[in-house]
Amino acid sequence: MALSLAIEALDAGYGAVKALRGVTLHVEAGETVALLGTNGNGKSTLMKCVMGLVRPDRGRLALSIDGVAHDLTKLSPEAIVDLGVALVPEGRRLFPKLTVTENLMLGAFRKMARNAIQQNLALVFDTFPVLKERRSQLAGTMSGGQQQMLAIARALMSSPRLLLIDEPSVGLSPLLVSQTIAKIGELKQRVGLTVLMAEQNFNQAIRIADRGYIIVHGEIAVAAQSVDELKANDIVKRLYLGGVA
Ligand SMILES: Nc1ncnc2c1ncn2[C@@H]1O[C@H](COP(=O)(O)OP(=O)(O)OP(=O)(O)O)[C@@H](O)[C@H]1O
């Protein structure tokens, strides 16, 4: 199944707060695209728009699945999950008093066949052995890194083709950030996912990204076709690489 995402001239916000202005961005099937920006620049809002959790004021938001376009602006979050999109939210949003397995089961969706759920469970336990070892442990008692793995694994339970990952590095030590990013890269190879990852951590994100965008004050300031192009950009040098633009 070939799935791609196209966002054009998107405006979104919260009343008087204009969080996104004229955002145009695309993610092609099989790509890993980084959406880079510091706090409050609109990354989470963009992810929520794709999931149907925030309704845009203007613009186009569409998935193409095997050449058939689906307008996401009119669909419920459940219908968007049904189409093969899943979000790993910022701050994980796990259920701390539920076990690892219970959290995972909540990621599977209602209409899924029992054997598909079992297959997904086997896949995530194989990908994240620590979750298998700790499957009966309460999510809230696990380390930050393990909780991030669980949040990613839970999103995988709905068999997504497009995974949106919102700031996987938040609250993790440098080593755990590195391990989490490597795991996302590994997963991508393994399951053939398309990934849009919001990150503040430029150097970690570009380890697995094919290309990236820089978002500043709700607008796309840089759209680069490759990581090399991103690194050579003057705005990127100024913001992330300590250079003088
Ligand atoms: N529920 C909300 N109500 C009002 N304003 C909001 C809401 N959520 C976000 N905002 C504002 O929208 C803007 C974009 O926020 P957003 O969370 O999308 O940015 P971000 O780049 O993901 O940063 P962060 O990492 O802090 O989440 C900010 O000015 C923020 O204060």
From TrEMBL:
Domain annotation ABC transporter: ranges: 5-242
Keyword terms: Amino-acid transport, ATP-binding, Nucleotide-binding, Transport
MF-aspect GO terms: ATP binding; ATP hydrolysis activity; branched-chain amino acid transmembrane transporter activity
Keyword ATP-binding: yes
Signal peptide range in chain numbering: none
Keyword Lyase: no
GO BP, sorted A to Z: L-amino acid transport
Record-linked InterPro entries: AAA+_ATPase, ABC_transporter-like_ATP-bd, ABC_transporter-like_CS, BCAA_Transport_ATP-bd_LivF, P-loop_NTPase
Origin: domain of life: Bacteria
Function: Involved in beta-(1-->2)glucan export. Transmembrane domains (TMD) form a pore in the inner membrane and the ATP-binding domain (NBD) is responsible for energy generation.
Family: Belongs to the ABC transporter superfamily.
Protein name stated in the entry: ABC transporter ATP-binding protein
Naturally occurring in which organism (per UniProt): Bradyrhizobium retamae
Lineage: Bacteria, Pseudomonadati, Pseudomonadota, Alphaproteobacteria, Hyphomicrobiales
